[in-house]
Amino acid sequence: MKLLFDENLSPKLVARLASEFPDSLHVSRAELDQADDATVWKYAERESFTIVTKDADFQEISLRLGAPPKVIWLRRGNCSVDDTVAMLRDNVDAARAFFGDARSSVLVIT
Q1: 22 in helix, strand or coil?
Q2: Within its chain, how far is the Cα of 65 from the centroid?
Q3: DSSP state of 83
Q4: 54 CB neighbour count, 10 Å cutoff
Q5: One pLDDT digit (tens) per residue for the chain, 110 residues
Q6: Measured between alpha carbons, how far is 31 from 88 in angstroms, rounded to an integer?
C-alpha cells in the first residue's frame, strides 16, 4: 500500500506512517509539488500509488476516469499532522479493504 501524499498534506506523514504504509512518498519528493492534478494522477497511476488528499479535485477525476490510481480523500478541515496520522491509523483496516476492492476508486475518511 504505497501512498502518494498530495501537496496539501505534510511531508512529515511519510515518516510518521512508514510502518503502516511503507514505500509511501510526498509529491515534493517526486518533484511534483508544483504539478497540476493530471500530472500527479499520471505519476500515481504509473508508479502504483494511491493518492491521499484533502482536495475534492482528485475525487472528481476518479469519478470520471476510475481507478487506478485509487484516492483516499480526507474530508476534515485544517488539522495537525498528529490528527492526520491518527485518522489514517484509525482507518488502516478500511484502507486495506479498499485496496483489495477492485470496484472501489475512492475511500472517504472523515
Answers
A1: coil
A2: 16
A3: H
A4: 17
A5: 899 999 999 999 999 999 999 999 999 999 998 999 999 999 999 999 999 999 899 999 999 998 999 999 999 888 999 999 999 999 999 999 999 998 999 999 99
A6: 24
SS3 57: helix
Domain count of the chain? 1
Three cell numbers at 64? 470520471
Q: Measure the CA–CA gap between 71 and 51, rounded to whole angstroms.
A: 5
Give the model's pLDDT for residue 51.
98
Domain limits at 22?
3-109
C-alpha to C-alpha distance for 105 and 86, rounded to whole angstroms: 22
| CA–CA distance, 62 with 71 (Å, rounded to integer) | 7
pLDDT of residue 109: 96
